Amino acid sequence: MKILQLFGVLTLAVTLLVGSAGNVSAQESAEVTGVIIDVNPAEETITIAPKGGGTEITLKLTGIEIMKDEVIVGIDALSEGDRVEAIYNPETNQALSITAESPPRGSFGITDNVSIGAEGEGSFMLETKWETIEVFVTDNTTYHIPTYVPPWQTWEELGELVLEGGDRVAILFTEPAADHIAQRIMVLPHSPLNNHTAGIIIEVTNNTITIEDNEGNIFTFDLPEDFPEAKVGELVTVISKRLRGIMNPVAKASVNVERISERLNRQMENIARRVAKGEIDEKGGNKDIEHLRGLLEANYERHCTVLERVSTRFEARFGEDHPARLAIERHKENARERYEKHLEAIEKGK
Q1: Residue 52 CB coordination number (10 Å)
Q2: Is 16 within the bounds of a domain?
Q3: 29 phi and psi angles, rounded to 5 deg
């Protein structure tokens, strides 16, 4: 009986000692995940930049097993840019375990400090969830903006491509990936390449138009040679695109309010013809016409509101005889006449 009691006491003592040692070990170890930014084989150390930021840490790798890409290697096999997970003693910075992976060929992030020449050579900074790196591009690097241009053309071939700070990119690096030379870049612009700007034309030159929107903001657009004729006082929506190295956005097309009203009127006339031919029933046709009439009224009210606001601002700034203000007043009268004409057409078609 005494022997059994003594055995139990010894077992309890060993358990307590082991548990205590385990607690000490847990307290004496720390973990860090990040990117290797320096390797010193002579001193058997590596320096790690922690993932997500923080203070860099230099660890001693003396006498430990190093795993890289699931293979046991020496410190010479580690490289700057390798992803690494390390367990170490925070008092001595002696590594207890090192697991590393080669940098991936693909990377995702946000661009900054873009500096690329006309022939496509240059660099930009890329902020990823792991680190911030400098990415290098060459005249062989190809780019793609989804739905905007044919895929994978060089910087020089695209000519109009915009890569700016703040754009999101997906990059495929050449081998070795640690050199950070981009082979392909897919660009997701942080702001639209095609913009729609609605306002009143307040100035027209040989190669530009200037419009003022409902809030008083003024925009100037460069015009291509085939751009349709534009007149001061017109309320238009200008579709434009931003280009590399161009100060003003370049207008691609414009749609004025008169054209929208005419389009709505043609749709109403078409519905009336189909009702007369029996292709659609009268009740359904009248419902469609009333819907289009509502759109026409909303279009007219919005048109006149913008015209009135811009006209008032022009009168305050330049006086009531300013040419642009007089042109706006003429367009207000034209808009009223067109609206009444279209309403008359609707009544006849019922």
Answers
A1: 10
A2: no
A3: -120, 150
